[in-house]
Amino acid sequence: MESRPETSSDSKTARLDASGAQTYPATDRPRAVTVPGETFLNLTEAVRCLAAARPDHLALIDGDQRLTWRDLGSLVGRVTARLRSHGLRRGTMVASLAENSAAHVAVYLGALGAGACMVPLPTGAHEAALGRMALNCDPALLFASINQSEVARRLGPSVVDLDDLETWLGEAIPDSQENDLPEPVGPDDLFDMIYSSGTTGTPKGILHDHRFRSRQVMRMANHGLNGDAICLMSTPLYSNTTLVAVLPVLAYGGTLVVMRKFETQGFLRLAERHRVSHAMLVPVQYRRILDDPDFGRFDLSAFRVKLSTSAPLPAATIRAALTRWPGKLIEIYGMTEGGISTMLDCAAHPDKLDTVGQPVAGAEVRILDSEERPLPPGEIGEVVGRSPTMMVGYHKSPESTAVILWRSPEGEDFLRTGDMGRLDADGFLTLLDRRKDMILSGGFNIYAADLEQVLLAHPDVAEAAVIAVPSHRWGETPLGLVALGAGATVSAEALRDWANAHLGKTQRLAAVEIRESLPRNAIGKVLKRELRAPYWLEATT
Fold first, then answer.
1. How far apart are CA 246 and CA 231, in angstroms?
2. How many domains is the chain built from?
3. What is the per-residue pLDDT across 324-359, written as a single tens digit (0 to 9) for each?
4. Which domain, by its residues, includes 423?
5. Residue 46 — left, alpha, or beta (φ > 0 → left; ψ -120 to 50 → alpha)?
6. Same domain for 405 and 470?
7. Looking at the domain assignment, is residue 521 inside a domain?
8. 122-131: pLDDT as tens digits
9. Is the pLDDT assigned to residue 135 strictly greater than 50?
10. Alpha-carbon span 23 to 393, nearest angstrom
11. Residue 495 CA: distances (Å) to CA of 450, 471, 474
12. Distance CA 50, CA 52 (A)
């Protein structure tokens, strides 16, 4: 077999195929569970077919803007043609830095239609982190909203104004039946890359191929996310949480209602006005919506299924939703990397509300002890999982990909979650503590180590630890605990403000407390459990 050249900037696993497209050979990827007799759903081909099959059905609602499937198909085709005229090839990366909008969705689909790998960058990240992400993915183009345009232009790539998409499209060859056809792609071709990264260190770009998304789309269609669905999108498009619900609706020809920025009254008004049937929300959104004093005034009777993920959904919130909000409530536990995948139909299992459900079809969950040996039901250890949806790997970081893999005695690849948990006799998974010092605030992952490094960069700080403390608004919020160096006089408030100026909007510290010292064990590790305990004890008493 003829060897293929590596790209100059890619990792050892990234190569170019004969057409010049970037590929990741199957032998270098985590091995997913096979699906016997599966069919492959090509999303961009589906969009083209839907434009012909149901031209007058509403595809997107964004404020006063309404796009039928004919409109959306035409717009996506024009984006595809314009990208091709820009010289994009299969596997090229195209990034976005923008809030939710109909144009953002169209660009996402159009980039896929051109065979590109879509990279939606997190608008809440600090500019320094965004710079590292841009360097890591090296996009051919960066689509930016007006709110993000200044930052986008400092990142380096060619920037396209997403709020003036028509001007950019006007430079393309007009609609043509030939140029707007989607690029032929296969299951192994790259689909998108989602970043799971904080402020410091090397960003980790999680690569998904078309097989991953095809399998995920078809699985979620089992929950009614199909051509009959009216789905309200209120979480950002750069989050895998959002894509889990949005992509199936687009693949099967449903209607997507776009919410640019979440707030409870706006969500309730849109849900009532458009007879919304489905929504993917994070737990803090459920609590805020249910706490809204006007919740009972809105007609939510069209809801069929509500989905929750990104953080544990408290049993009290589940019970309130089941009592007051029509439709099923499904809790999902998973990772952007794939592997672990469980679901809980809350109404069907009222005695299991403290769990995150059972593995989905084709998935397997195991619990490992400290020596990486599988444990029996009832025993606590690290949660690992395998499923039909497994990431390609971390972009340009085969070492990080290797770290997250656990190979079973049978030779099967599992992905480590970093979470501690146990399986009961019925196969339901209960999550306990986290091995990672990760804070889940408002549905976003915040890594304590990133915040600690920022605090330690202040000249007056000698020691720093960041922990999760309870927050009614966010579920959890980060608290900084620091010990100052000799002679230091900085106040806690000034230190918090200084650190937050160096952090992304979703990472900011709620407060900083100054301690004489931080508790450590015999080998010098900060005892975070000891630091957290008083705050969580107070919250439960």
1. 7
2. 2
3. 999 999 999 999 999 999 999 999 999 999 999 999
4. 364-436
5. alpha
6. no
7. yes
8. 998 889 889 9
9. yes
10. 11
11. 16, 21, 22
12. 5
